[in-house]
Design goal:
This protein is of the alpha+beta class. Helix content is 26%, strand content 26%.
Length: 142
């Protein structure tokens, strides 16, 4: 019997190990069979490294804009190092940012990650300021 595929693009996951352990991320592209470079099942995820801070009414616009910043990351992660959640996000705009070779091969070419991360930062900050997906932009409490 074939197991149902549940790690699809748009699924929100929590990273379990490494530098970003405990951070929320969303799957942009998955590779169930692995690739030539990575022989294990993995996914390219975009997540929040530094979450936005609390904002109150008394704060000025400059302070609000500083506290509303998001620091993102993009990473290829082994399936055994991610825990899926029940949440999902619309990722069409985030997936469009990925270069074609990354979508095909499952890894970033040298020097291609930084411009992609800048675009992901812009898209995530727009979502945060619009008030969408509030759960995704809050720090895990445990």
């Amino acid at each position: 019997m074939q197991q149902k595929k549940f790690l699809k693009p748009g699924k929100v996951v929590i990273l379990l190990s490494g530098r970003y352990a405990g951070r929320k991320a969303v799957i942009l592209q998955n590779f169930d069979q692995g690739t030539d470079a990575r022989h294990y099942p993995h996914a390219i995820v975009a997540g929040v490294d530094r979450y936005p801070l609390k904002v109150t009414k008394a704060m000025g616009t400059r302070k609000v804009s500083k506290r509303s910043r998001v620091k993102p990351f993009i990473k290829a992660v082994n399936y055994s190092h991610i825990m899926p959640t029940r949440y999902s996000l619309q990722v069409e705009d985030l997936r469009a940012v990925l270069p074609k070779e990354t979508r095909a091969h499952g890894h970033f070419e040298k020097g291609k990650r930084f411009p992609v991360r800048k675009q992901v930062k812009k898209l995530l900050e727009e979502r945060y300021l619009a008030g969408k997906n509030k759960w995704f932009f809050t720090k895990l409490r445990f």
